[in-house]
Amino acid sequence: MRNIAMIVSYDGTNYSGFQSQPGCLTIQGELEKALFVLTGQHIRVNGSGRTDAGVHAKGQVINFRTDCGIPVERFALAINARLPGDIVVQSVYEAPQEFHARHDPKSKTYRYSILCSRFADVFRRKYELHHPTPLDFAAMAKGLEHLIGEHDFSSFASPKSTKSSHVRTIYECRLEVETLLPFEDTDAWRYPGKQRGRIHLYVKGNGFLYNMVRIIAATVILIGEGKLSPSDMARILVAKDRSQAAPTAAPHALSLWALDYGEVFGDKPETPDEA
């Protein structure tokens, strides 16, 4: 049996998340349906993680076992012809027999996008949170620094989390800022110390809890608004109390961005660049 690995991108707007659910439209369900049409086999797909309803992915990784003889160089074209337009297989690899998409990643990176502009961007509204007033980007970046390292992230985990331990290690937590055009920033003088722009929050770690990135995003927005100070992020972290952090941010601005599997694919690239 071959062990096939794929890098998959998808727009999660119309889906009830990645994982198959009875009576629901899911990414896993569409992938398995396309594989059945392509190979005639009932194939179970393993995903690197379960993105929630409305969450997108640039670099989701899946693997499955099959004895079909389609060459890897033709697999992507073949399956994409059988998938809906909002799911695209970017690349296909013949993986080692022991490879498992969920068990083997060394790190995962998520991106949460926020547009600080008076008006929403009609073309990107499905992929970013619209925040109509400016935010203090410098304060937000300073607050995020407190999350780097190994911590108990109970304050940033949904009460629905089923994990026995909430200890995770965050390797990187940063903001990337895209400035707006001058005509979009005409009222900046009204908000001293704050800016308008499109910001992307990148969080890279060895694992994530249910709703963790969305709760971090909502909390750092409160810092940007001046309702919390950067040092409050450390206080919230130490509290290990979900009620201390902000309500969970909307799912549509979140994307599973990239995964790192080390040398498992040899000298081939694993997932999209994180920047």
Automatic annotation (TrEMBL):
GO terms for molecular function: RNA binding; tRNA pseudouridine(38-40) synthase activity. Substrate binds at Y110. Pfam families: PseudoU_synth_1. The active site is at D52. The keyword Isomerase applies. It comes from the Bacteria. It catalyses: uridine(38/39/40) in tRNA = pseudouridine(38/39/40) in tRNA. One of its GO terms (biological process) is tRNA pseudouridine synthesis. The keyword tRNA processing applies. Keywords: Isomerase, tRNA processing. Residues 7-103, 145-261 form the Pseudouridine synthase I TruA alpha/beta domain. Its EC number is 5.4.99.12. Belongs to the tRNA pseudouridine synthase TruA family. HAMAP family: TruA. Homodimer. Formation of pseudouridine at positions 38, 39 and 40 in the anticodon stem and loop of transfer RNAs. This is tRNA pseudouridine synthase A. It comes from Cohnella faecalis.
